[in-house]
Amino acid sequence: MNSTSHPLSPPGATRFTFQGMAAATAAVLLLGACATTPQAPPQLAVAEAAVLRASTPSTATDAPAELRVAQDKLAAARAAVAAGDTERARRLSEQADIDARVAELHAEAVRSNKAAQESQSAARALAEEIQRKAVR
């Protein structure tokens, strides 16, 4: 702290200046702000990456409900961090991560089923063509 001796003060006595008090007050406020800043759990970053990875046009088309659940839980996890509820944020982050993976897998399954149906349809058409040529 910034201090100066006052001419009428006993030797060794100090007087605090306004700048010194302001600096001390700012330091206390900054330390207090650091102590109350909500800390995001590490799972939140994992969930954010998973939801981002799952947020593709094909997943939005083929698994919109599952993707929406993951996005909603991620938003709830962020809100829990802002509210200072780290444990709830951790749980919601883990759930959002899993839900994002479910969305990706569901979309992949839908695409696989479509591809399988197209292959079966092509195989039927080929079999019918072969049978027509065999009958002639």
TrEMBL record:
Signal peptide segment: none
Biased composition annotated in UniProt, kind: Basic and acidic residues: 126-136
Domain DUF4398 residue range list: 42-118
Stored Gene3D superfamilies: 1.20.1270.390
Domain of life: Bacteria
Stretches the record annotates as Disordered: 111-136
InterPro entries linked to this entry: DUF4398 (IPR025511)
Protein name: DUF4398 domain-containing protein
Organism: Pelomonas caseinilytica
